[in-house]
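Supplementary Methods S3. Complex input for the 4AD-bound model.
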Amino acid sequence: MKRTKISDIFHTAPGTEVSVMGWVRTRRGNKYVQFVALNDGSTIRNLQIVFDMNVFTDEVLKPVTTGSSIHVTGTLVESQGKGQTVEVQAKTLEVFGTADPAEYPLQKKGHSLEFLREHAHLRPRTNTFGAILRVRSALAFAIHKFFQEKGFYYFHSPLITTSDCEGAGAMFQVTTLPVNNPPRNEDGSVDYSKDFFGNTTALTVSGQLEGELGATALGAIYTFGPTFRAENSNTPRHLAEFWMIEPEMAFYDITDNMDLAEEFVKYCIRYALDHCREDIEFLSEHFDKDLIKRLEFVLNNDFVRLTYTEGIKILEESGRKFEFPVSWGVDLQSEHERYLVEEHFRKPVILTDYPKEIKSFYMKQNEDGKTVRAMDVLFPNIGEIIGGSEREENYDKLLTRIKELDIPMKDMWWYLDTRKFGTVPHSGFGLGFERLVLFVTGMTNIRDVIPFPRTPNNAQF
Ligand code: 4AD
Ligand code: MG
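Predicted complex, serialized as structure tokens:
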């Protein structure tokens, strides 16, 4: 008999003979009847398997403990019990693998998230992580669907690069040289000409610069891949390895860019609500009662758009004592962003036109000589979820900025060529995928929305 996934069982007619496979969540009962809650990862809902103890023996059911994997055939029947519509009256049982109760770590319900982080290899088997990972998968699909339907091309930027797009200098070096005894130049410095690529290389912090090459050829592209930042930020919003989506569009100005960003995140949230309703309801019930209300709220409201300068004014006039004092020119901290979003406007905010000193070299310079055409999308509970800008398309202005910031020119010649040959106005942004998953699942720590988080002092599993 062909196996039926548990997600399909709930759409199968009672009376059907079925074959199901999965992992045992719990077993309970008495000497007449035993109930097993079975989960196969296809849905948050467990399937109840009923073992009539006139047919089965204690001995046969003994290995059926929490965490064990089994195959059951039987008849699907309407359920008498509450909490489920159907159940399986078992006829045959095959045990694939046991899970010794003395050793299997996920015995009881309601393990803390901290405990589960230490058991990240098994946590996908919990209800919580099953739900989160299904939402994560759906969101990844929604992202491709959104851009593909809009005629954007999926563009693959390299993971190993020689350029530091964000200029933060927080890169993971890639080398095959022996770290203890590398070849050296006469002056004692490491001779990277002997390295694998004949040059210093690192893992990418952003696919944007290469994405701009794609956009100025294909018109509109998006990247979607892992990015790496060696910044020592031990916060609930930062990972050393995270996934980023970076659309880049020729002929888009900052307003087109903001419109796209707003449409895009709303599309993703709507998709998750439509396709992962049960998972989101489960997460809402267990972690964040306001989750669905908050998601609906974001969908039903226009994002507020204002300049950095206006934002600073609001913060200064708020009368609020911030840990980091605000004045024009400072980089906004999470507390400032959250004040604007959660207390002042109570809506997502797109902040634009930041001082050029606190933003990247590639952003389009405004007439005022002080600000650049940057845009950050700020979300409730998250802070910055998207960072982007219109790009400086003028060769001379870009070159001047590169020189001012002392960015090594020899590394940038290929990027400057986009401005030298057929330059066009263009824009783009980057969405931190895990921050979107955080928002949609209502979780509060970014380590809980990626299967295997990489953070300072932690690259286990
Ligand atoms: O603001 P960022 O640094 O912008 C860029 O990298 C641009 N090149 C994007 C572009 O214009 N194409 O990063 C973009 C987003 C942030 O808004 C945030 O959501 C996320 O990436 N992000 C991180 N997410 C998790 N962990 C980190 N360490 C992150 N750093 C940035
Ligand atoms: Mg940013």
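Residues 42 and 204 are 34 Å apart (CA to CA). Residues 127-149 form the longest helix (23 residues).
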